[in-house]
């Protein structure tokens, strides 16, 4: 007599997220694990800390430092401008009809990067861009003589703001919409001005969310590579471009040192994302 087969009943609700877990496992977890292991291995396969210690060179440290500066300033300015724009159309006196077009544009612009974004900025404010030539011919303003160069650290920060500001708008808008009207009414009844309400009530509640979003924008800019390569090429020494050159085999000459360089980027972006998750969860406790 044959024994009945054991049946495994999986809830059908999990089928919809299976592609997500497969995608994350194949294209995020496995490559990350491969990089981490490679950062501590010799070309012969042995274990070593030499690759990590080799990061302490002027070229690599300078690349990390420039990347951190670009990520910090683009995230700081992106947070400030994006918050002001989102607040104006959400809880401020800005025209209500602007909100939906702004959110729609932000959804598109936050994902607009790489070669198209670099070309758009080069064609607009590059050395021979439309605005550059217009200012020179019509007003005698030479941006190059004034010290502005799009193919530089400052130029890269300005270019990154094109997707940093929209990303800030998308993330902070739900937090602004979560501010309860009763809080402002209670503050008004107690005699608080609008400025006092924002300084003592709204901003302290939103601050963890703002700081967490800034950490997310930092990670977003720190790991951006396509826009930087398309805009500046190898002329700017930043970590993503240095890593890209290592993958192509142009410099360094050690694949495992390249893994160590990528491992350092993973640590920095991982810490920034972890900070975002912690601060976001703290802010949501007030906004529920």
TrEMBL record:
CDD domains: TM_PBP2. It is found in: Cell membrane. SUPFAM superfamilies: MetI-like. Belongs to the binding-protein-dependent transport system permease family. CysTW subfamily. The chain crosses the membrane at residues 12-40, 46-66, 73-93, 113-135, 147-176, 196-218, 225-245, 257-279. PANTHER family: INNER MEMBRANE ABC TRANSPORTER PERMEASE PROTEIN YDCU-RELATED, INNER MEMBRANE ABC TRANSPORTER PERMEASE PROTEIN YDCU-RELATED-RELATED. Coiled coil: none annotated. Keywords: Cell membrane, Membrane, Transmembrane, Transmembrane helix, Transport. Its main location: membrane. It comes from Pararhodobacter aggregans. It is a multi-pass membrane protein. One of its GO terms (cellular component) is plasma membrane. Residues 64-276 form the ABC transmembrane type-1 domain. This is Acriflavin resistance protein.
């Amino acid at each position: 007599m044959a024994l009945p087969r054991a049946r495994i009943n999986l809830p059908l609700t999990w089928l919809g997220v299976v592609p997500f877990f497969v995608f994350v496992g194949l294209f995020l977890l496995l490559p990350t694990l491969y990089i981490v292991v490679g950062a501590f291995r010799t070309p012969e396969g042995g274990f070593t800390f030499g690759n990590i210690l080799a990061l302490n060179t002027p070229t690599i440290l300078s690349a990390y430092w420039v990347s951190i500066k670009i990520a910090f300033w683009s995230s700081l300015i992106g947070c400030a401008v994006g918050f002001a724009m989102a607040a104006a159309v959400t809880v401020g006196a800005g025209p209500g009809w602007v909100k939906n077009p702004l959110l729609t544009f932000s959804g598109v612009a936050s994902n607009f990067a790489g070669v198209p974004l670099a070309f758009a900025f080069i064609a607009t404010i590059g050395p021979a861009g439309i605005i550059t030539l217009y200012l020179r011919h019509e007003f005698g303003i030479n941006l190059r003589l004034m010290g502005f160069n799009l193919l530089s650290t400052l130029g890269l920060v300005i270019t990154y703001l094109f997707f940093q500001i929209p990303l800030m708008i998308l993330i902070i808008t739900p937090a602004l919409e979560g501010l309860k009207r009763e809080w402002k009414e209670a503050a008004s009844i107690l005699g608080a001005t609008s400025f006092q309400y924002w300084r003592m009530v709204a901003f302290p509640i939103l601050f963890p969310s703002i700081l967490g979003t800034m950490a997310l924008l930092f990670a977003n800019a720190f790991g951006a590579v396509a826009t930087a390569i398309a805009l500046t090429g190898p002329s700017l020494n930043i970590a993503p471009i240095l890593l890209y050159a290592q993958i192509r085999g142009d410099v360094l000459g050690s694949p495992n040192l390249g893994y160590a360089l990528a491992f350092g980027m993973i640590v920095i972006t991982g810490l920034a994302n972890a900070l975002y998750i912690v601060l976001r969860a703290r802010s949501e406790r007030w906004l529920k």
